[in-house]
Amino acid sequence: MDLSRIAALRATPVPPALHLIDGAACPASDGGTMTARSPIDGSALTTLARGTVADADAAVAAARRAFDDGRWSGLAPAERKRILLRWADLIEARALDLAVLGVRENGTEIAMALKAEPLSAAATIRYYAEAIDKLTGEIAATPPGTLGLVHREPAGVVAAIVPWNFPLMIGAWKLGPALAAGCSVVLKPAETAALTLLRIAELALEAGLPPGVLNVVTGEGPVVGAALAASMDVDVLVFTGSGATGRKLLEAAARSNLKRVYLELGGKSPNIVFADAPDLDEAAAVSAAGIFRNAGQVCIAGSRLLVERSVHDAFVEKLAAHATALRVGDPLDPATGAGALNSEAQLARSLRFVAEARAQGRRIVTGGDRILPETGGYYMAPTVVADVRPDDRLAREEVFGPVLAVTPFDTEDEAIALANGTDYGLAAAVWTGNLGRAHRMVRRLRAGLVHVNTYGGSDLTVPLGGVKQSGNGHDKSLHAFDKYLDLKTAWIKL
Ligand code: NAD
Question: Which residue has the least CA distance to atom 18 on ligand 1?
Fold first, then answer.
């Protein structure tokens, strides 16, 4: 990694950020702004336009005009592909600049940010661009004298509300298939992670995306996000974030135009280690990374460790050693293993969970505290809490911080009961050398993604989505197109 370039970029002032509506940068309708703070040291980084309902409505109107006049939706798929591929190239060419800007705003360690953010976003946009001119419709097996044609049409105006943990990666999971499908988009970034999304939206214009096709409105969720959810002119609403917000979006859709709503709401993912795991040392190392990378702010984080009692103490010791050894600190130092939490609020939330566990008498094996307060940044020691009981808040609610809850089990049935015993169902993992047990567990675990003898690895080619209160619909893979392409039947009498 080019250290002098990183040093130069971190010292570069960030100009005030504006919305991008109808191809033009513009301030909030009332001139309002909000401060973007760097979690690295708590300093003010720049200001963002504090969007209003009028701004959200203007962006939806621009997206609607762009959709209805066919400037994008009406292009040949191969032409959309050409522009999207150029966009992906521009993002990739500026990967380090985007990664550093993103780290300054959201605190993710740079090595991970580079890979998971701009490079992953470019790969995602390429994947959907490459796919769009290979999708076809259907001719149905209709009775003689009739012809049933099934077309796939772009769904219309998409509102995408995204979180702060991986803004470019998660943003591209929505933008890639939506734009390739021919939809127009209004994107609402999180309050604490908007700058890189604004930057790639400018690059989209440079690549030739017509104005109005991709609009970005910054500001507060309960104002801008709520206005998009309540809009009568948004056809599809896609979201990644908390369950509490997800509920509000469903309510707003029901009260307005019954827009389709797709939710990715995180999890409390069980990571189940059996005594017959092929390599307990590897399991400990990978499990530690699965909860502590990006300071635990990962929707599929393996935040509940369930360990077979016969190896419990030894395994917890191994895992705690990895937690203690992890280098936490300046996320722009490539040697850092875990960076800052995204905001003071997220740090406070994580510490609250630990304080409650402490008060309940649970065992804090390592960590538990804020560290490096002298930097002004939002850092927390990787934390392992043992003897957590199934009804504890720490076992049921998503912390979204570097806090691992550990519970022992004795049998396969007990492991399943514990694993499936929360409202969530996003990810899970099983570590075992017994093939039959591995397959049994995959079938019995209620989760959209089950890892076997690994944690956290995945690929764009496979879908990601939750069951139960982790949401509905899928990001990634060709299945993501289902959200952005409507089926239309033409029934013809021959
Ligand atoms: P959040 O759900 O409030 O924010 C996510 C996005 O929704 C942001 O863009 C936000 O501006 C927007 N939003 C907030 N309120 C809204 C509303 N009323 N209407 C429309 N949009 C709204 O999440 P948060 O407060 O940033 O984080 C809280 C918790 O959510 C975290 O601790 C974590 O448990 C969870 N979370 C999950 C993910 C994930 O990847 N699944 C990502 C971020 C947060």
Answer: 222
Calculate how far, in angstroms, residue 193's C-alpha sits from the geometric centre of ligand 1: 12
Q: Is 83 in the pocket of ligand 1 (CB under 6 A)?
A: no
List, in sequence order, every residue forming a beta bridge with 282; answer none if it has no partner: none
Q: Cβ(113) to ligand 1 under 6 A?
A: no
Give, for ligand 1, the residue of 169, 239, 400 to mutate: max count of ligand atoms closer than 8 Å to Cβ.
Answer: 400
Q: Is 63 in the pocket of ligand 1 (CB under 6 A)?
A: no
| Ligand 1 lined by 222 (C-beta under 6 Å) | yes
Q: Rounded CA gap, 442 and 454, in Å?
A: 13
Average pLDDT of the segment spanning 149-165? 98
Q: Is there an atom of ligand 1 within 6 Å of 299 CB?
A: yes
Burial class for 438, CB neighbours closer than 10 Å (0-12, 13-18, 19+): middle
pTM of the model: 0.98
- Protein residue whose Cα sits closest to atom 32 of ligand 1: 400
Q: How do residues 186-208 score in pLDDT, each as one tens digit?
A: 999 999 999 999 999 999 999 99
Q: Both tokens of residue 164?
A: 């702060």
Buried b (16+ CB within 10 A) or exposed e, 118-148: bbbbbbbbbbbbebbeeeeeeeeeeeeeeee
pLDDT surpasses 90 at 458: no
Q: Which residue out of 223, 242, 394 has the highest number of ligand 1 atoms within 8 Å of its CB and is therefore the one to mutate?
A: 242
At residue 294, the 3 state secondary structure works out as: helix
Write the residue with the smallest CA distance to atom 4 of ligand 1.
241
Radius of gyration of the chain (CA): 23
Work out the burial of residue 76: count CB atoms within 10 Å of its CB; fewer than 13 is exposed, 13-18 middle, 19 or more buried: exposed
163 Cα: distance to centroid of ligand 1 (angstroms): 6
In one-letter notation, the amino acid at residue 76 is: A
Residues 60 and 188: their CA atoms lie apart, in Å, by 11
Q: Whose CA is nearest to atom 43 of ligand 1?
A: 241
Among 367, 119, 166, CA closest to 266: 166
In this structure, the residue with its CA closest to atom 29 of ligand 1 is 242
Verify whether residue 264 is a known catalytic residue. Answer: yes
Distance CA 489, CA 150 (A): 5
For residue 398, name the pLDDT band (cuts at 50, 70, 90): very high
Q: What residues are paired with 370 via a beta bridge?
A: 380
Q: Which of 187, 212, 202 is nearest to 67 (CA)?
A: 212
Confidence of residue 225 (pLDDT cuts 50, 70, 90): very high
Average predicted confidence (pLDDT) for the chain: 98
Question: Does 183 participate in catalysis according to the annotation?
Answer: no
Q: Give the residues across from 483 on adjacent strands.
A: none
How many Å apart are CA 11 and CA 201, to the nearest integer?
23
Crossing angle for the helix pair 95-106 and 195-207, nearest 10 degrees? 150
Beta bridge partners of 304: 270, 405
